[in-house]
Amino acid sequence: MNVTCLQENLARGLGIVGRAVAVRSTLPITSNVLIATDHGRIKLAATNLDIALSCWIGGQIEEEGAITVPARLLADFVNSLPTEKIQLSLSPRSRQVKLVCARNEATIGGLDADDFPPIPAVDDGGTLEIDPKMLREAISQVVFSAATDDSRPVLTGIDLVVEGDQLTFAAADGFRLAVRHLQLQKKAAERQEVIVPAKALAELSRLLQDQEDPVRMTFNANKTQVLFALKDVELVAQLIQGTFPDYSRLIPKEWGSRAVVEVRDFLQETKIASIFARDGSGIVRITFQGGDDGTPGRMTIAARAEEIGDNSGELDAQVEGEPAKIAFNGRYLQDVLAVLDGGRVALETTGPSQPGVIRPLDNDTYVHVVMPMFVQW
Amino acid sequence: MTDASAATGHEASWTVVGQHAAVSALASAVASGRVAHAYLFAGPKHTGKTLAALQFAQALNCTGDGPPCQRCRQCERVAAGGHADVEVITVGSPCDESEHRHSADERDIRICQIRRLDRLVTRAPFEGRCRVLIIEPADLMNDAAANALLKTLEEPPPRSVLILSTDREELLLDTLRSRTRRITFTGLPQAAIERALRDRWDVEPGRAAELARLSMGRLGWAVVALHDARMMEEREEALARAEELAASSLAGRFAFASSLGGGFTKDRRHVHRVLDAWQAFWRDLLLIASGREDQAVHRDRLDRLRPLASQCTVRGIVGALRSIADARQQLDENASPVLALEVMMLALPELRPNAVGDRPRP
Ligand SMILES: [Zn+2]
Ligand SMILES: [Zn+2]
Questions:
Q1: pLDDT the model gives residue B3
Q2: Rg (CA), chain A
Q3: pLDDT of A37-76, one tens digit each?
Q4: Which of A184, A353, B39, B195 is the most buried (most CB within 10 A)?
Q5: The pairing of beta strand B181-184 with beta strand B38-42
Q6: Is the pLDDT of residue A197 over 50?
Q7: pLDDT at residue A275 greater than cutoff 50
Q8: Is the Cβ–Cβ distance between B339 and B327 less than 8 Å?
Q9: Chain B: residue nearest A236 by CA?
Q10: Confidence band for A310, pLDDT divided at 50, 70 and 90
Q11: What is the value of pTM for the model shown?
Q12: Consecutive sets of 10 residues in chain B, 362 residues long: mean pLDDT of each?
C-alpha cells in the first residue's frame, strides 16, 4: 500500500472513526483502525463490535493495500503533524506502516487487515431517507429516556418503528417514556420495528451535526444491523434482540387537569427548585390552578430540603380542569424541558399518583410521560 | 485420524477425540437446526470440553459444507480466536465497568462479567449467524453471578447459545442445570489416548504409553504435558515430595502445609496440581497394596512405591485419599488453605522412608 493525503483530512477521519475504537475488548485488533484503499479513496474504519464507523477521505493512491494500526497512537501522531501532505506506505508482506509528513517520519507496527472483524454489510432490508436536522432533533428528544443500566437490556435501546410515512422513536427506562414521530418523505413498503442501542444513536447524533444531505437508513433483512449512511461516513449498529414493551398503553388517554406554560419559564423555575431539591431525592412539587374572573391561572414549582431551606417559584399558566398537585424528580423534568425547542408546553395529569404527560403545544409529534414521586402534601 | 474416520454422518469433521456421544448430540443439533439456548458441558478436566465448545461455535457459524468445515472464513476466525461473536467468560475476563481491571488471580467469576454476557447476548451477532458465549469453569461463578445468569436463561434471546463448562457440576445451582441441555464428557480409555497421541500428535510409542498412563483418561492433559516440560518436572517434584512427606514428622508436614497453603491465593492451580499428584501417588499405593500393580500410573517408580505400599493397610490408604479429597473440597469452599492442608496431613499414614541411596536423581 502506498497512499498520500492531507494531514487535516486524515486527522478528521481518524477523529470520526476513533469514536468506535474499542476501549477494552477480548479482541486486541479492535483497538486498531483499519486503513484501506477503496475505489480511489482511502477508507478508515473502527469497531467496538457494538457499532462500526467507516469514513472515506480523498487522497492519491499509488498502490492498493490494507492494514490495521493502533488507533490511539496513529491519531496522536497525526494530530501533532503540520497541515501538509502525509504519505503512508506499507511494503509488501510487511506489517510496518511508514508515515512521512514534512520533516517527520514514523513507523508503526500493525496487524493484518484480514484479521479485522468484517464490518457487516447492510443492504437488503429496505432504505429510508431522513432529513439530518429532524433526525438529530428526534434522537435528542428520546435518547435521555433510555435505561443506562443493563438490568433490562431492551430498555437500553431506542425502539424504531417504520409504518406508512411515519418513523417513530421511543425510549423508556421504567420511570419515563419519550415518543417522537417523524414524517417521512416517502411511504415505507412495510411495517418494521427494531431496537437500536441508545449509545449508537447518540454517536449518530454527534455525526449529524455537520451533515446537510439526507441520511439513508437501512436495516438488513434479518434485523441484526442498521446502517446509517451519511456523506463519506457510515455507521453500522448491532440491533438489540428482543421485544420492546408495548408503550402505547402507558400514555394516558385523558386528563383531569391541564396547564399550558412557556417552556422557558417552566425549565427556569424547575432548575431553581432543583437546587433546593438536591439534598432530598430531587423532588420538585408542582401545583396549578385556574384564575378567577378571567385572570390567568398560575403554576407553582416548589422544593424543600430539611435543614437547608425551601424555594417556591411561580409562573403564569393557562389552566383547564381541576386544580392539581403532582411531584416529580426535578432531573427528569429538566431533561425533557431542555430538549423542547422553546414554545409552549402542556402538563396534563389525572391525580398526584398518576403519571404526568408533557406535550409541546404547537405540534403533536412528541409526547413524554413521567412517573410522579409520592410525597406528603 | 482413527476417531474421525470412525465417525459417520454429521460428525465427520469434528476433531474432538473419543467423545462420540457428545459430538454426535452437538452435530445433530446443528444439522437439524434444533439448537438449545444453553448447554452444560459436564465432565472431567482436559477431556475436550473447550475444543468441543469451539467446534460447536464453528459449526453454528460455518458457511461451508459439513460444518464445521474448518476451511471457511468463519471456521478459521473461530479457530484463530478472533471471531467477534465467540467469547469465553472466565475468571479475570473483562467486564463493561470502566473502572474494573480483572485478573486471572481472582477467585471467581463475578456478576459484572455476567452482566457483560447479558449485554452481549442481546446484541445481534456481528459477523456470524450465532453468538456463542462460553462460561468456563462455570462452577467458579459466585452466587450473585450465578443468579444473574439464571435470569438470562429465563428469557434467552435469539441467535445466541450459552455453554456452561464444568468438571464439578455438583457445585452449580440445580436451577441452572435444569435450564441447560446436558452434554456429558467422559474420561477416555488409556488405549484411546495412547492411540491419539501416536496418530495425531506423532508421539513415539514409548512416550505415548507413558503419557497415556499418567493422563488418567485426560487427553488434554497429555497434550499439554507434551509441550510443557515444566508440567512433568512439577509433577516429579510433587511425587518426590509426597513420598518424603509420607515419611516425615508432623512438624515437617505442618511446615510444608503452611508453605503450600500460604501460596494458595497467589496460585490456586499450582496447589491443585500438587494435590493431583498426591492423589495419584496414594492411588498407586492402593493399587499395589491390593494386588493390581499393573494398573498403577507411575510404572517408572514401582521400585520405590512397592516398599511403601507394603507398610500400608488398604484402609489406611483409603483414609489418605479421602483426606486429600476433603482438603480439596474445603479449598473450594474457601476455608483457610493452611488449615485445610494441615488437617489433611494429620490423616496421612506415617511410613518408613526408603533408604536414602535409592532416591531417584532429581
Ligand atoms: Zn466452516
Ligand atoms: Zn468487573
A1: 43
A2: 25
A3: 999 999 999 999 999 999 999 999 999 999 999 999 999 9
A4: B39
A5: parallel
A6: yes
A7: yes
A8: no
A9: B126
A10: confident
A11: 0.84
A12: 47 87 95 95 94 96 93 95 95 91 90 93 93 96 95 89 95 94 94 93 92 89 88 85 85 89 84 87 91 86 88 90 91 86 88 60 42
Cross-chain CB nearest to A49 (options B118, B126, B159)? B126
Chain B partners within 8 Å of A156 (Cβ): 119
Q: Which of A24, A25, A150 is closest, CB to CB, to B118?
A: A150
Looking at the fold, whether A168 and A217 belong to one and the same domain comes out as yes
Residue A152 counted as domain residue: yes
Q: Is A25 touching B (CB cutoff 8 A)?
A: yes
What's the B61 CA to ligand 1 centre distance in angstroms? 7
Find, among A102, A244, A76, the residue nearest to A173 by Cα. A244
Enter the ipTM. 0.83
State the helix-helix crossing angle for B268-289 and B314-332, rounded to 10 degrees: 160
C-alpha cell belonging to residue A35: 486503513
How far is it, in rounded angstroms, from Cα A229 to Cα A227? 6
**Residue B317, CA distances (Å) to B248, B281, B341 in order:** 16, 10, 17
Contact A150 B94 (CB under 8 A): no
For a pLDDT cut of 90, what percent of chain A falls above it? 78
DSSP state of A213: S
Of B96, B123, B127, the CB nearest to A117: B127
pLDDT bin (cut points 50, 70, 90) of residue A24 is confident
Task: List B residues 127-156 in contact with A (Cβ-Cβ < 8 A).
Answer: 127, 155
> How much is the average pLDDT of A280-300?
87
For domain B3-184, say whether CATH 3.40.50.300 is its number. Answer: yes
Min distance A153 CA to chain B CA atoms (Å): 6
Q: Provide the pLDDT for residue A26.
A: 82
Residue that is written with C-alpha cell 486524515 in the block: A10
Backbone angles phi, psi at B311, to 5 degrees: -90, -10
Domain edge (last residue) among A193, A224, A248 = A248
The answer on A258 and A239 residing in a single domain is no
- Kindly tell me if the per-residue pLDDT of A125 is higher than 90: no
CA distance A32 to A113: 10
Which one of A23, A24, A196, A225 makes the best mutation probe of the B interface by having the most chain B beta carbons within 10 Å? A24
Structural domains in chain A (count): 3
Residue B301 has a pLDDT of 84
Task: Out of B82, B118, B126, name the one closest to residue A115 (CB).
Answer: B82
Count Cβ atoms within 10 A of the Cβ of residue A252 and give its class: 0-12 exposed, 13-18 middle, 19 or more buried: middle
Same domain, yes or no: A211 and A155? yes
Pair A89, A12 in one domain: yes
Count of Cβ atoms closer than 10 Å to residue A46 Cβ: 26
Residue B84 touches chain A, beta carbons under 8 Å: yes
Cell numbers placing A294: 378571567
Do A15 and A69 sit in the same domain of this protein? yes
Greater confidence, B354 or A366?
A366
Q: Nearest by CB to A241, which of B88, B126, B157? A: B157
Give the pLDDT band of residue A350 (cuts 50, 70, 90): very high
Domain that holds residue A175: 127-248
Contact between A146 and A156 under an 8 Å Cβ cutoff? The reply is: yes
Residue A376 within a domain: no
Give a yes or no: residue A120 inside a domain: no
Dist. CA B332 → ligand 2 center (Å): 22
pLDDT the model gives residue B359: 47
Evaluate whether residue A292 is within a structural domain: yes
**CA A347 to CA A256: how far, in whole Å?**
11
* CATH value at residue A175: 3.10.150.10
Q: A115 CB near a chain B CB, below 8 Å?
A: yes
**Comparing A300 with B104, which gets the higher pLDDT?**
A300
Residue of B nearest to A120 (CA): B127
A31 CA from centroid of ligand 2 (Å)? 20
Instruction: Mark whether A97 and A170 lie in a shared domain.
Output: no
Contact yes or no for B122 and A154 at CB 8 A:
yes
State which of A115, A149, A170 marks the end of a domain. A115
User: How many CB atoms are closer than 10 A to CB B25?
Assistant: 16
